[in-house]
Every structure is written in C-alpha cells, then in structure tokens.
Design goal:
Distance between the termini: 53 Å
Strand order of the largest sheet: 4-12-11-10-7-5-6
GO molecular function, one term: transaminase activity
GO cellular component, one term: cytosol
Helix content: 25-40%
Shape: globular
Structural class: alpha/beta
Protein name: Aspartate aminotransferase family protein
CATH topology of the largest domain: Aspartate Aminotransferase, domain 2
GO biological process, one term: L-arginine biosynthetic process
Strand content: 15-25%
Bound molecules: pyridoxal-5'-phosphate
Keywords: Amino-acid biosynthesis, Aminotransferase, Arginine biosynthesis, Pyridoxal phosphate, Transferase
Length: 454
C-alpha cells in the first residue's frame, strides 16, 4: 500500500517535490486563486499582477467572459481535430483577428503559443518562397538581443546570445543586425530619426552581404519586450525596414507575441508604426491566460502563393486551432471590444508613464523609462549619468523579483549579459482592466521593492 499523500504538496525546491521546476533553487509562493488584477497564494497573501505574468493576463484573473466561454465550449465539444473539422470558435476568432488587422493580413493560422507561432511564420515564409519559384531564399535576418521563443527553430531565429549559448550547435547560425535601442546606441551627433534610419540601413547591408536572392525574411519584435524591456522603435525605423524588405523581395515578419493584442493601445502594435507586415505572430494576450493559444496572421499574398501552388501548408500540430482555446480567445476579443479596453490601455498607460516618471525620473538607479500603452520598462543601472550597468554578480533583476514578491507585487525583471552589453530592466504589463488606484499601488510597491534592493 502507498503511504498517505501529505495534505499540502512539498514546497518548490524541496527534496519531496517531483516537479521539474525551471528554477528549483528559488522559493516560490503557491498560487491558489485570482481576483481581478490580483493573484492570491495559499497563505491568503495578495499580489498585484503588474506584469500579467509575462504580458499574458490582459483581462486579469477572474474575467467572467472567457471563464464562461471555456465552460460552455468544453460541455459542448472540448476538442475536434482541425484536419477533420472547422468550428464556430475557430471561424469567429479568425474573423475578429482579421477585422482589426492592418494591410492585407487576411488569413489566420492558429497554434498553441508564441514559439509555435514564430516557427509557423518561418515555415510559411519558407514554403511561400518555394511555391513562388524562389527556393534559394532561406536566410533569416533578425536582431541582436532579440527573443522569439525557446523551441529550436524560434531560438535559432533569435539573437539572444545568453539564451542561445548552450544550444548553439543545434541552432541555425542566423544573421543579426543591431536592435533599435536609442537609449544605449544613439550617437550624440544624430537625431532619433537619423539614428533609426542608420540602424534600419544595417538590414540593407546584411541583405547585400548575404546575397539578396538568398534572404527569406526579416524577423523583429515591433516593441522589444523580454530581452530589452518594452523598447519601441524610434519614429520612421519600421517604415524604412518595410521599404528595404520590399526593395529586395524579403518578407517582413513581426513578432507581436508580447506587444500585440492591445498591449500597446492598438490591437496590433504595428498599427502605430504605419507599416503592415507580411506575417505577424501573436500569442500571450490572445488567450489572456485562460487558455494557451497563439496565431500567425498572414497576408493574402502568402496565402494565395501557397494555395495556388501545392495547395496546402506542409505543417501542423495536434492542438492547432484547439476549439476550447479558440473559444477563450473569442471571449477575450469580445471583452476588449465591448468594454472599450483599448481606450483604458491608452489612458491608464499614459497615467502609468506619468507616475513612473514622477517617481523614478530622477532615481539614481533608473536610467531610462520607456514603453507604449500598458507595456512599460525601467532600465536599471549602477550609475544614471554614465549609464553604467550593474555588475552581473549583483543579480539586480533576481533580487528585485524576490523583493517585489515580498511586497505583494508581480513585476518582470530581466537582466544579464546581452551580447557584450550588460543590461537589467523591470517590465510592467498590467491587465487592461487596471484602475488608477491600482496603478498607484503598483508604483508604490515598485518603489518600496527598489528601495529594499538598491
Ligand atoms: N516571441 C516573443 C516576443 C516573446 O516574448 C515570447 C515569450 O516571451 C515568445 C515569442 C515565445 O512565446 P511562448 O513562451 O508562448 O512560446
């Protein structure tokens, strides 16, 4: 006979826990419930979720819309394989995503998360090139310090040296140009606009060097999230990128896994750049954490190229277009529209930016405050005047994360060595339903957390 199970499972990191935790040496609270913008642990402590996990929980943790949608869908039909059936939820989700999309983005391929979305976009791009008679196009150009997911294809397409290092022999080598990161890289003798044109022009140089006929796509985040901390490109950068891609027949893939689905104040972040990509990857806020779901929205040209070629996309996952996940995502899209949440993102985003600037604008360890909508980053530095980063051994990001949890705050600090540039930042991405009082609570708790670390 087995021994009776303990009433409460073993804590993270203890010898009795059988979970393969990612950070087994870090003690974590045990989450038991969610109420609006708060997560509650098993001791009853409440944490204000100022980062939506990692920019996921855009409706907070107890929104009745997706909860009911999931319950109803599971009762009716939990799963129907998309190679046999379409369904109301899949069709409606695609309609909603296309209705709000820029340019000729017109067809939605549904997957289960961000890495899958990026892999799918890369394969769509490749198959399109083959179908239109340009099989020599296979090279992916992306940016240094970028992150596009952790599966091998997505990791191989990214430019984050730290995340790639262990797996390098398994990854595509890739070509990486500079990110658009004005705080660190703009020269004193150039305007922001000139800086943006200069770094965008690195794409043209990379294409020419690789051989334009071999380049398949340029992949970039519209607003750089996890690795840089909510860094929007400067004015004109993406328009120049689009021009260069068009000049050489290179596809533009925008990764909006983090920045998309309303986080920056428009459904697609690229709407604010005045460009439409050929493919856009979305996930995270698409299911708002109620279900894992992601998608690639493809231009008509890509779809037509494949359909009028071999006639089908050589790709697929068992859970692509999972009907319950899609039902949750439909409910999220409806809530965003019915509750006018994009307006709240813009309005509370402005308020958050103002409060952060008031409180931390002269903080000796906050070098830069940036972002868009409810997607804000604070760059943490040892010295504000020189922009000198913290010594990595100080582990400022890890310390801040722990201190924030102590203070009942969930923020998303990241740090470490990034391609020779050290950098630490704290990312804020609160739910779209956040109120002014809750923004104040976030800023107060962040202040207290920073004070206990620095
Ligand atoms: N792309 C970007 C920009 C991301 O921020 C992430 C995750 O943080 C991904 C892709 C990968 O998404 P997922 O973790 O859902 O696989």
């Amino acid at each position: 006979m087995h021994d009776a199970k303990p009433a409460r499972p073993a804590p993270v990191g203890s010898a009795e826990s059988h979970v393969f935790h990612r950070f087994p040496k870090v003690t974590m609270p045990r989450a038991v419930s969610g109420e609006g913008v708060y997560i509650v642990d098993d001791g009853g402590k409440r944490y204000i979720d100022a980062s939506g996990g990692a920019a996921v929980s855009c409706l907070g943790h107890s929104h009745p819309g997706p909860i009911r949608a999931v319950q109803e869908q599971v009762e009716r039909l939990a799963f129907a394989h998309t190679s046999f059936f379409t369904s109301d939820a899949v069709e409606e989700l695609a309609d909603l995503l296309v209705e709000g999309a820029p340019g000729d983005l017109d067809r939605v391929y549904l997957v289960s998360g961000g890495s899958e979305a990026v892999e799918t976009a890369l394969k769509l791009a490749r198959q399109y090139c083959v179908e239109i008679g340009q099989p020599q196009r296979h090279r992916v150009i992306s940016r240094r310090q970028s992150y596009h997911g952790n599966t091998l294809g997505a990791l191989g397409a990214g430019g984050n040296a730290w995340r790639r290092a262990t797996y390098e022999p398994l990854l595509a080598p890739g070509t990486h140009i500079a990110p658009c990161y004005a705080y660190r890289d703009r020269r004193d003798d150039e305007t922001e606009f000139e800086y943006g044109q200069r770094v965008a022009d690195e794409l043209e140089q990379a294409i020419l060097q690789a051989g334009p006929e071999t380049v398949m796509c340029f992949l970039a985040e519209t607003v750089a999230g996890a690795t840089l901390g909510a860094v929007p490109a400067v004015e004109g950068y993406f328009r120049r990128i689009r021009e260069i891609c068009d000049r050489y027949g290179v596809l533009l893939i925008l990764d909006e896994v983090m920045a998309g689905m309303g986080r920056t104040g428009t459904l697609y972040a690229c709407e604010q750049e005045g460009v439409a990509p050929d493919l856009v990857c979305i996930a995270k806020g698409l299911g708002a954490g109620y279900q894992p779901v992601g998608a690639v929205v493809a231009s008509r040209r890509i779809y037509d190229g494949i359909v009028s070629g071999s006639g089908f996309f050589q790709h697929g996952h068992t859970y692509s277009g999972h009907v319950t996940a899609c039902a949750a995502a439909v409910a999220v899209q409806r809530a965003i529209r019915e509750e006018n949440l994009l307006e709240n993102v813009r309005c509370q985003g402005d308020y958050l930016a103002t409060r952060l600037t008031e409180r931390f604008g002269n903080h000796r360890h906050v070098g830069n405050i940036r972002g868009r909508g409810l997607f804000m980053g604070l760059e943490l530095v040892a010295d504000r005047a020189s922009k000198e980063p913290f010594d990595p051994s100080f582990r400022v990001a890890a310390r801040l994360k722990a201190a924030a949890l102590e203070h009942g705050l969930i923020c998303y600090p990241m740090g470490g060595v990034l391609d020779g540039q050290r950098g630490d930042h704290a990312l804020l991405a609160p739910p779209f339903i956040v109120t002014e009082n809750q923004v104040d609570e976030i800023v107060d708790k962040l202040d207290a957390s920073l004070a206990s670390v620095l």
